[in-house]
Amino acid sequence: MVRKIVALFVAVLALGLLTILIVFGLLHTQYAKPMVIYTLDKGLGIHVKSESIQYHYPNQVTFQNARFELPDQQPVEVAELSVWLSTQLSTKQPIAIHELLIDGASLSASQTPSVTQLKQWQIENIALDHIDYSHGEMIINDLRLQLTGIELGDSVITSKGNVQLQASQFYYQGSSLRNLLVDGELDGDNSKILGASFTWNKSSISTQAQIQNGRWSLVNTTIDRLDLDATAQDDPLLSILKKHVGHINSLDILNSTLSNNDMTVDNISASLENIDLDKSLWKQSEAYISVDADQLIWRGFEFIEPTLEVYANEERIEVADLDTQLEQGRIQLSGYVKLNEIKLDKLEVDGVKYIQEGDKLLY
Description:
InterPro entries: AsmA. This is AsmA family protein. Residues 4-359 form the AsmA domain. The chain is α+β, with helices and mostly antiparallel strands. It folds into two domains: 45-199, no CATH class; 201-363, no CATH class. It has helices at residues 2-27, 32-44, 115-121, 236-244; strands at residues 47-56, 60-69, 76-85, 97-108, 125-135, 138-151, 160-172, 175-187, 192-200, 203-212, 215-224, 227-229, 245-260, 263-276, 287-292, 295-298, 301-312, 316-326, 329-338, 341-350, 355-357, 360-362. The strands form two sheets. The chain has a 20-stranded mixed sheet that branches. It has a two-stranded antiparallel sheet with strand order 21-22. Strand 4 (97-108), helix 3 (115-121) and strand 5 form a beta-alpha-beta unit. The longest helix has 26 residues, at 2-27. It is elongated.
């Protein structure tokens, strides 16, 4: 009796192994395509039309020039899609994806899987290459994206993973970034931008950033050759920046021209440290600002080669140095200012010439 049971067990095991071998064998023949299409249709409700489907041992399936139709979602057409299935499967999780690669596609928000769908497939890594993406008034051209070590939460904000992004152009409501590069870590309130760079308004911008008090703090930010009229220009990207960035850890502005209301600064270079953007200069804590420029024009006054170094801390603004040429003369000043007190350690006014007649200043 025991021998019969053992023989039956061996026979069943052999039949199972033979079935697996046959399936693997068929995946290397012309039957791979109908087998994969049937499995996706019946198992996941995904309808597939593909020019060719190739199986690569042990766990990769590649679709060429394919169209995918997912439940409750717009169809997706891709030049190439490769799936690497996880080798650690279970009855609770019959399909898990180790890596998903999409190369060559035009996608919209209505064509991308939801976080819930991605969680069902237990995707560990996602790679996008040569993708054009649109979502409302946002358009991204030639997107390359890698998400690794993904731990999906209930939303993108609560998910974790490493992010590398590259795009030739990023458009939003008519404003654009070019040559965008981002390397970061997605981890809720511990998210970080390890490095980012792009071109905006012909200026080169690079930065690092981290979450601080629920908003981004800019770290080691450099802005080079920016030409910006903050009064006339209602840039939507600036609105996003104001909404999501609340603090400047360190920012350098180089070789730039800035305008605001009745002030224009030419060829300015400035450094800002520890600035809370939600507070006035009077309410800062250990903030630092230094500025030098070729020229500053303010309400008719022309300041030539002005330099300024300021420390702000708890309703005290210390002017460590102010030096500028004004109308054939020179002004030098240092001291501090409080809400109800001014103390000047140094004030030198030499050779400044102007004449005031009525409401007019004649120089």
